[in-house]
Input
Amino acid sequence: MDKIIERNLLFDFYGDLLTERQRNIYQDAVYGDLSLSELADDYGISRQGIHDQIKRCDKALEEYESKLHLVERFENIKKYSKLLKQEANKSSDEKLKKSVDEYIKKINEQL
Output
């Protein structure tokens, strides 16, 4: 998985477990694409302090995933839903196709 996508998914799943300050810095760095200098100016700390904060957030998010596996499960559900739809589309039974599509839609709404 691409590192940027992975960081975004980890933050989406576990970002609320970070402190408010960590969340703000991480959001500005990852989503806002601000440089270390810009972040340092905004938060009144050194570039090294910002760098260390981002690294700590990355490590914390990765540790949450290693224990809870929510991103992995999310990705697996998406993958198996896609495979299920492909298999259903091979069938000539239109009722089955429609039923599978409806269930996949409901699954995706839950994700």
